[in-house]
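Students often ask what a holo structure prediction actually looks like on paper. The answer is less mysterious than it sounds. You provide the chain, you provide the ligand, and the output is a string of discrete structure tokens encoding the 3D arrangement of the protein together with S-adenosylmethionine.
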Amino acid sequence: MSTPYTQAVKQLHTILDWIRFGASEFERNQLYFGHGTDNAWDEAVLLVTASLQLPFDLAPERAQCRLIDDERLLIAQRIEQRVNQRIPVAYLINQAHFFGLPFYVDERVLVPRSPIAEVLKNRVAPWMEGREPARILDLCCGSGCIGIASLKVFPDAQLDLADLSLDALDVADINIQNYGLYEQVAAIQSDLFANLQGPYDLILSNPPYVDLEDLSDMPDEYHHEPAMGLGSGDDGLDITRQILANATDYLSKDGVLVVEVGNSWVNLEAAYPQVPFHWLKFEHGGDGVFVFTREQLQAHQHHFRV
Ligand SMILES: C[S@@+](CC[C@H](N)C(=O)[O-])C[C@H]1O[C@@H](n2cnc3c(N)ncnc32)[C@H](O)[C@@H]1O
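The corresponding structure tokens follow.
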């Protein structure tokens, strides 16, 4: 460990000492915050409390508790890794929250952050209003966070989690086990729809969609995420084009497709000027999520299947 951190291990004793030290280090080194928190203080609170198996919203009096040697060493190492290697905290603590639920994560999957969480909080209204999907697909599932969260809203559905990456599916499996969902959820290796058996009543997808320009501008933190989870061709739409061309065949008659394309929504509008995409608005940040019913997709099929 380098000097400021070995000194810190000797001199800092309470939880609050370590949060303060972490926040100052993060600020001084101008880290990027985009994987769970949006500022240095919260990032330090998350790193320190999770490393001690304590809740993020720690009672103020507990912040004065003193730490034992091993705890100080672990936290110092993690602060150093966050600063010098720019590793997102979620990977250091192997946990990220999505839809208010904890998910196991490591560098085999993206850190969950999709605004599709808000779509689920609203029960995919009005598209799924008054209806319970019998079968849900989380396409390009990564950790499985979106699909597993959907079962909190639609608890009786059967869920398929699909990803091309076996590494990602291993992580999804850990989350299936952690939530005791092995009878309700299948993790399937599939290049998009290739190994899937429709029809699905609800398809949720946060596929790779970062375009080449954004990819080259990404802060170091993103280089710890699997490249396969981010880029998707020059305009970020290679995968989305295939989803649009094929989803109709995998949706039930009243099925609904929800797809995130983030900043690449501009490219999508430019690629299909005749198609009226319905873009969702979010209270808690994020953009670039569109929704189609099967009927609407079918009506625009000739644009997507070229
Ligand atoms: C943006 S990440 C999203 C992960 C997860 N849905 C989330 O929101 O955290 C995209 C995922 O798509 C997977 N992927 C990339 N190409 C794919 C393909 N052709 N078929 C299936 N999955 C693919 C990647 O392995 C990665 O896990």
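The CA atoms of residues 163 and 213 lie 25 Å apart.
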